Amino acid sequence: VRYRLDKLMPSIYNGLAKALVGGGLDWAAPWLSKPYDGDWVQRGLVFEISSGHLLKLDEFGNVTRASHGTRMLTDDECAEAYPGKWARFADLDARRRHPDFAVFITWFDVPAVLVLARLVDAVVEGACPAHPGGAADAEGFAWLWPSMVSAFDHIFDNIDGFRSSRGSFFEGLAAAPQEVVVPRPRLRRALERLRARGVLQVLATNSHFRFADFCLRASLGDDYASLFHLVVVNCGKGRWFTGGGANDGGTPFQSMCSAGWETGPVATRLRLVQDDVALAPGGAGASTDATVAPA
Fold first, then answer.
1. Does the pTM of the predicted model rise above 0.90?
2. CA-to-CA distance for 202 and 191, rounded, in angstroms?
3. pLDDT tens digits for range 95-154
4. Which of 153, 109, 93, 100 is nearest to 12 (CA)?
5. Rounded to an integer, what distance in angstroms lies between the CA atom of residue 36 and that of residue 111?
6. Disulfide check for 89: which of 61, 123, 139, 186 has CB 3.0–4.6 Å away?
7. DSSP 20-68
């Protein structure tokens, strides 16, 4: 699926801003209500929670640029704060989570970079009643992070988002899919040719069924499932490819948990489109594990 980034990213930014203001950070409204600035946002930035700094790292872990909020640190300030390799680079390089940083690498999370920068600006300028004068607490800006996580959960709630009028990302997407999703007729024809030649085609996505189904319909047509032998959603890439998968215990491409595909923490839905691809008894909606053996 291809997205129109000039529409997608402002939509996510506005959704996050609205969720934060409505979720108790109303003091930040003057900052978060500013127009989205696409020139300021880029992939790969790290938010250091303890300092409130946004960091740009090179491949060796050295900080090449940093900002506090939207204020760029000078070269001298940057060198003083980060004289050598960034302290948490080993965790980042190993893709380990750490409570002191978050990294933004997908088109769906990078708009949060600008949101966080403007939140820090608001705190620095004394807008937060709990932190007058721009003071952070003993753990830096850690108190802001739970609100950020809640905002993400709110706008990317696949279940309520499509059927409510709360102003989520999904509600806007459903109202005008052509504004965000690019139709792919040439890709569809290519997939049809491959399918006609007998090539086994599997679509695997980390997205929840509702979102994946909606975007694939907009991109490839309502009958997109006919192009594939197997469609797997919320599959837990890339652990799924190496033997973990969404349920952290399966053999890649074979064992996938189908329980609770709509409301549970593990969500995998299989769509059977060809007789020679068999599901275990119970099918995709069963409450037990489904073993799939593609032909």
1. no
2. 11
3. 888 888 999 998 889 999 999 999 999 999 989 888 765 555 656 888 889 999 999 888
4. 109
5. 9
6. 61
7. HHHTT-GGGHHHHTSPP-GGG--TTEEEETTTTEEEEE-TTSBEEEEEE
